[in-house]
Amino acid sequence: MNFTSVAVFCGSHSGSNPIFEQHARELGEYLGKNRITLIYGGGNKGLMGAVANAVMKNGGKVTGIIPELLIGWEHQHTGITDLQVVADMHARKKIMYDLCDAAIILPGGNGTLDEMFEMLTWNTLKIHNKKIILLNSAGFYNHLIEHIRHMQECNFLYEKWDERILVYETAQEIIATLD
């Protein structure tokens, strides 16, 4: 896979397991060193801040897209290459999709799942065909993966889910794939 930019969708919290933040930093370090631009939600907290800071620390470029509503919640990151403040979540997602070559999903909450499933839906509808990579750090997404399998078994999906979402257990596995 040859990418010049990737969107990373992840939590504005760090979560309960230190491996989540470690994986975010490892991924950010790789992106920065390999001049792959990070497109992300524009926050300076949690996994969002960890991945952005690692990219910047390693000489990379970071574009943050943050809705006006979330500036206070996610603490907009003022130390990145480019920060765009947009009207709402829909504008944020659209710009992030347009700017990226692929998306990597790290652990996160409702917003992360919303972003992942919208991108997956757009792939299914052939609006775009960008790779979606799920980082299942410490089994964080095991239950979700099982539910998606269940949706497939119950014949609610139009195509095989694992042809649309690539699942990896560590940041190093993703990095090996990107290389």
Query: What is the CATH architecture annotation?
Result: 3-Layer(aba) Sandwich
Q: Please report the number of helical segments.
A: 7
Strand content: 15-25%
The overall strand count is 7
* CATH T-level topology: Rossmann fold
Give a quick account of the main beta sheet: strands, pairing sense, barrel closure.
7 strands, parallel
Q: What pattern of helices and strands is seen along the backbone?
A: EHEHEHEHEHEHEH
Query: Would you tell me the overall average pLDDT?
Result: 94
Strand order of the largest sheet: 4-3-2-1-5-6-7
Question: If you had to describe this structure to a student in words, what would you say it looks like?
Answer:
The chain is of the alpha/beta class and 179 residues long. It has one domain (5-178): Rossmann fold (3-Layer(aba) Sandwich), CATH 3.40.50. Helix content is 44%, strand content 18%. The chain is built from seven helices and seven strands; from the N terminus they run E-H-E-H-E-H-E-H-E-H-E-H-E-H. The protein has a seven-stranded parallel beta sheet with strand order 4-3-2-1-5-6-7, sandwiched between helices. Helix 1 (18-33) packs parallel to helix 7 (171-178). The chain is globular. The N and C termini lie close together (7 Å).
